[in-house]
Amino acid sequence: MYDLIIRNARIVDGTGAPAFTGSVAVEGGRIAAVAPSIDGSAAREIDAGGHLLTPGFVDIHTHYDGQVCWDKLVTPSCYHGVTTVVMGNCGVGFAPVRPGSETELVEIMEAVEDIPGTALHEGIPWGWETFGQYLDAIDTPYVMDIGAQIPHVSLRHYVMGERCYDDATEADIAQMAEITRQAMLDGALGFTTSRFYGHIDSKGNTVPGTDATADEIMGIGDALASVGHGAVEIISDHMADPDEQYWIEYIARRTGRPVTTLVAPNTAPEIWGFAERLNAEGVQFRPQVGARPPSILMSLEGTVNPMRQFPSFSDIKGLPFDEQRAMLRDPAFRARILADGQKQSRFADTTEMISTWDRMYVLPEDLSYEPDYTDSIGGIAEAQGCDPREALMDVMADGKLILWLAGKYEGNLETVRERIEHELSVFGLSDGGAHCGLLCDASIPTYMLAYMCRDRTKGPLLSLERTVHKMTKDTAEFYGLTDRGVIAPGYRADMNLIDFDNLALDAPHMVHDLPAGGRRLTQGATGYLATVCGGEVTFENGEHTGAMPGRLIRGGQQ
Hints:
The chain is α/β, with parallel strands linked by helices. It folds into two domains: 58-294 and 410-498, Metal-dependent hydrolases (TIM Barrel), CATH 3.20.20.140; 296-405, no CATH class. The strands form six sheets. Strands 1, 2, 3, 4, 5, 18, 23, 24 and 25 form a nine-stranded mixed β-sheet that branches. Strands 9-10-11-12-13-17 form a six-stranded parallel β-sheet. Strand 11, helix 7 and strand 12 form a beta-alpha-beta unit. The longest helix is centred in the first third of the chain and has 17 residues, at 170-186.
């Protein structure tokens, strides 16, 4: 008598091995048996009907550090088969924190990750100081498992206070190292830092730690070496710099722990040769890649609204959005926009995003994120014989989202596909919980299966077995979570039963469901017949069953 049996499934087990037909039995939250057929019965039996069965997806790059305080479903990741998330990435988070300085961490998170500060202020209960106390505060039931990393920004702010933008002293470094060591012992899954020019706080400064010396980060690395678990996540603009490579290599060798740096549009190609050299020597360094180039979605309601570059738009920006859309169709108002000069944004990158007509794409209806020139504002204007501003106003009036793909997009995602397939890449960069008014990449497990493995026509498809492996066993093992990510006896019973042929993304849309009425883009999916976490069915046909088997994962204490 088992707790659960899923019979007659097409199993892709997470190892990368070919799919096979079989059944899975679950007992006590673990997989008890995998076989062509299973004798006996169970308290709950599901006939898979030949549908796809995968391990639960393990998303290692999220920013749910605040959201887990009020959203125990961890939406929208829960709608996309995710059963484990790792947060605290890019050096930002909410612990440790000096009592009274919480607002400063909120302001940094709001500026860097585009999470409404009002939502964070209202939704986070605070009351902690150390990282361990933060873990205790979020150690509650969830629909999935969660794990947290100690972020460099919070660490530096805690130790150095107003000096956190300056060089650290030897005493500062020693204190940061000791706090990191204790955080790891308390259950942190790793340490993260940002050295990215685009992470700007509300005062216009790059976030604390961006220009930290090699001595500082190596000192913190020494603390990780003493605890024997965890990983290091870095976003860096300097991967071509021998000095940057030097301290990253030092940390990887000194700690013996996995290190990952994010592959952004401006990431130097040297990262791949660096990775190949280190891994050939048994040193774990893996570039982290996403499902598509870093991108944003622009709309009237979003963080980036291209209409704001026109002075006349200021006269209607306070109107309800339906009225704004109506005004964009008004001939007199359109004439004013066509006559306007263009305002320059505070940031050159933003100016480029909102005014380069041939790179501003209407989000394709098939949600491919692989548009053609004809989908661009420039292409639409050319086809209609009108000014690009007219085409822009038509699109915005229709309520359509405009997609900006950062980097060198040449009409397809072949570079992205090649990076995902690279033997040394690790899959991440969903940014779940962050960039609320800019994107919703928490949906990328569904995108990977439905588009990159099934529907894509602009280049080769990804292998289903290889893709599932990259989102399950591979990501889990990177963080030392060796109890999950595989459908095999003894592993944690985290699984997804999927109608692969009919798996589809819903269109991203704006909702106002954060604390204090904060807005965010969200995105659902159809085709998930069941999601199982810890042996309990948590979702059926996209609906939460009420089960909350998830827990806080404490690194080194599994």
